[in-house]
Write a structure and sequence with these properties.
284 residues; alpha+beta; 4-stranded antiparallel beta sheet; 4 strands
Length: 284
């Protein structure tokens, strides 16, 4: 995910039918333009409560949600995230992996946290992602718009400083929420049969990849020359994503944040939350 996450929901899956939950899922599209009005506090609280109802690993709740409402702080986030349009005129929530809370529980219960490294990151990322998507679907059901902001994770070290995040807390993704000022069509996905495997994993063939690229380019009928042109554009776009270096600055920022927050899987020098020198990147 980079920048404003590219997010398409139209595909060759099952029909939408009349089920409102299925409709919310299948008709959802990322919203990047919002009406200039605040979301009612009770609606925001309802969405956060819906996020909390997501499954959580071993009841650990290894994540936190930071609601950013201070206009000055939101303006700074907007700048750090490269002035993404979706961050204007909307509510904003930062989803974080959080093992600091686990340390507090451990101290209170008189035990020591053993969960760490890659497993702690895995548990926290799973919990955070499930909670975020719960909120997205709930918002869609309420007629509200959302958009994931991947720059939060790509600028993790900068976000840690800006939000004064203590050790044990790692920002991963942001989410805008608000009243849509646009009605984009759900974007396409690759055909379902290329994503679902039966009993054994099956590699895509070159013909499969070409078919998937045609689907992503929206090539369904029409002038053959135009279809070839659109397919070539799609192939060029995805080739650039795969071989490009756009992700490398985010990798460096993430590594820096993992160390500063005491969450580096390889045990790079960083104290545990609650121990001497516990301040994370934001508290130095």
């Amino acid at each position: 995910m980079s920048g404003e996450t590219r997010d398409r929901t139209k595909g060759d899956g099952p029909g939408q039918g009349a089920d409102p939950v299925m409709q919310a899922i299948l008709q959802r599209a990322s919203i990047r333009r919002y009406e200039p009005r605040r979301l009612e506090p009770e609606k925001l609280e309802a969405l956060l409560a819906a996020a909390l109802r997501a499954p959580t690993t071993a009841m650990g709740h290894f994540y936190s949600m930071i609601v950013v409402s201070d206009p000055a702080l939101k303006a700074q986030l907007y700048e750090v995230c490269d002035r993404q349009r979706a961050m204007q005129g909307s509510e904003f929530v930062v989803f974080c992996v959080d093992i600091r809370r686990t340390d507090a529980w451990a101290r209170h219960l008189g035990v020591r946290r053993l969960l760490s490294g890659y497993t702690a990151l895995l548990f926290g990322t799973i919990d955070m992602a499930l909670a975020a998507q719960n909120l997205v679907i709930a918002a869609a059901g309420m007629g509200l718009g959302t958009c994931y902001i991947g720059k939060i994770g790509h600028k993790a070290a900068e976000i840690c400083r800006l939000l004064s995040l203590p050790a044990g807390v790692l920002p991963v993704v942001g989410l805008t929420i608000g009243y849509p000022a646009e009605s984009p069509q759900p974007r396409t996905r690759i055909p379902l049969r290329f994503m679902v495997h039966r009993d054994r994993y099956r590699d895509m063939t070159p013909d499969d990849i070409d078919e998937a690229l045609l689907a992503l380019a929206g090539c369904e009928g029409g002038d053959p020359a135009e279809l070839r042109s659109r397919a070539a554009e799609a192939a060029s776009f995805f080739a650039g994503i795969i071989e490009g270096s756009w992700w490398q600055p985010g990798e460096r920022s993430l590594r820096k944040a993992l160390v500063s927050q005491g969450m580096a899987p390889d045990g790079a020098a960083a104290p545990r939350a609650g121990e001497a020198g516990e301040e994370g990147e934001g508290r130095r």
